[in-house]
Amino acid sequence: MMSSSAYISRCQKELKEWNAPLSDWYPTDLIDIEDENSSNSLFTCELCGCSRVRFVHVMEHDLYFESVSVGCICAGIMEGDILAAKERERLMKNRARRKRNFPKRKWKETPNGNYILMYKSSYIQMICSNFNDEHYGVSYNGKTVWKHKGRPITSFLAGVYAAFDLVDPIEKVMNP
Ligand SMILES: [Zn+2]
User: Does 125 lie in the same domain as 58?
Assistant: First the structure.
């Protein structure tokens, strides 16, 4: 295990080699790698090469041409605030736990074939349209989505995950 100052200087040396800024990066996305692929492979941090990253912090800088996807500590080094990156990671872990439990909630079928679920004192509605193919829309607090991750929602379970992202968005972890 490297000491943290050796680790920090190694990361900064790498950034220098890229002609990249050493600090003031900011996170623009957080990805739970277990959401993205069903295999157990984890992500490799683009800065330090650690191959055991589950939560990917996507970092950007106004003076750099591309985003850099890294693990928690490297994100903290790049933004100059390791505690902030650790807090983001902690919130993301809690969200992943909520997401795992969310499908266990019991939706109630309405007489017209839609579904509702009470969540934080508002109803989530899942509308099932059988017009052509089975197609679901999810709405909560005045916002409705008919796609999830760019794709039409074509099953009840896909609707459940779309509902989760609607009621518990990653943006809330990014800007707590
Ligand atoms: Zn790293």
Answer: no
Are 78 and 136 within one domain?
Answer: no
Residue pLDDT, tens place only, 61-112: 999 999 999 999 999 999 999 999 999 999 999 999 999 999 999 999 999 8
The secondary element (H helix, E strand) that includes residue 14 is: helix 4-17
Higher pLDDT, 37 or 68: 68
**What's the domain range around 21?**
4-96
Residue 168 Cα, ligand 1 centroid: separation in angstroms?
Answer: 27
16 alpha carbon – ligand 1 mean position (Å) = 15
pTM of the model: 0.86
Q: For 135, phi and psi rounded to 5 degrees?
A: -150, 130
Residues, CB-to-ion distance under 5 Å, ligand 1: 45, 47-48, 50, 70-71, 74
Q: How far is CA 10 from CA 4, 5, 22, 72, 138, in A?
A: 10, 8, 11, 15, 46
State the distance from the centre of ligand 1 to the C-alpha of 49, rounded, in angstroms: 6
How many angstroms does the Cα of residue 24 sit away from the middle of ligand 1?
16
Among the candidates 96, 114, 147, a domain finishes at 96
Tokens encoding 157: 């379970």
